Amino acid sequence: MFYWLLKLVVLGPLLRLVFRPKVEGLRNVPRSGPVILACNHLSFSDSIFTPLIMKRKVTFVAKAEYFTGKGIKGWFSRMFFTGAGTIPVDRSGGQAAQAALDTLLRVLRQGDIAGIYPEGTRSPDGRLYRGKTGVARLALESGAPVVPVALLNTDEIQPTGTLIPAVKRVRIRIGEPLDFSRYADQKGDRFVERAITDEIMYELMALSGREYVDVYASTLKAAA
């Protein structure tokens, strides 16, 4: 209830008025049944604008620290992520990635929409980086179609490290659903998982027009 209250009454109308989302391909998102939204990741605000433009509820996972902050900033973060339907996941342990996937798999088994960033982290420079195979495992386990969602300019609206976003029209492009049911009997095959992930990243590259780098963004950040 809180999700729809924020989206339809409290924050949603204001965000639409200020940022005037321009969306291409919204019809590509199925109206019912489980769906995986695979998004490129440019900005903190990606998790704001993606649910905003969808007609159905979208569930992302986020690190538990977003729900435990102190002070006004912590309160706002907790309120926003709770209202946005985001589920906290403890990412400190070795099973963090699996915990996130298990959470999203439950969402899909309920017939809902799960959102995921295949790159695993925000792009450090606006380019598109190699996808992690969790999105492929999610598709194989759930049987859900994968809809690629290209956020085109959220890094200009809210660059990394910026608290207050710039007032600019947000642009999003949504591709056609990708069906990987042909691999249903090959769950656990890491070569198949890599092939599926690369196909998804290719679609995101084509939709976004961003340069693709065949390196994990997390690896680049760690080196820096």
TrEMBL record:
<dbReference type="GO" id="GO:0005886">
    <property type="term" value="C:plasma membrane"/>
</dbReference>
<keyword id="KW-0808">Transferase</keyword>
<dbReference type="InterPro" id="IPR002123">
    <property type="entry name" value="Plipid/glycerol_acylTrfase"/>
</dbReference>
<protein>
    <submittedName>
        <fullName>Acyl-phosphate glycerol 3-phosphate acyltransferase</fullName>
    </submittedName>
</protein>
<dbReference type="GO" id="GO:0003841">
    <property type="term" value="F:1-acylglycerol-3-phosphate O-acyltransferase activity"/>
</dbReference>
<feature type="domain" description="Phospholipid/glycerol acyltransferase">
    <location>
        <begin position="35"/>
        <end position="154"/>
    </location>
</feature>
<dbReference type="GO" id="GO:0006654">
    <property type="term" value="P:phosphatidic acid biosynthetic process"/>
</dbReference>
<dbReference type="Pfam" id="PF01553">
    <property type="entry name" value="Acyltransferase"/>
</dbReference>
<keyword id="KW-0012">Acyltransferase</keyword>
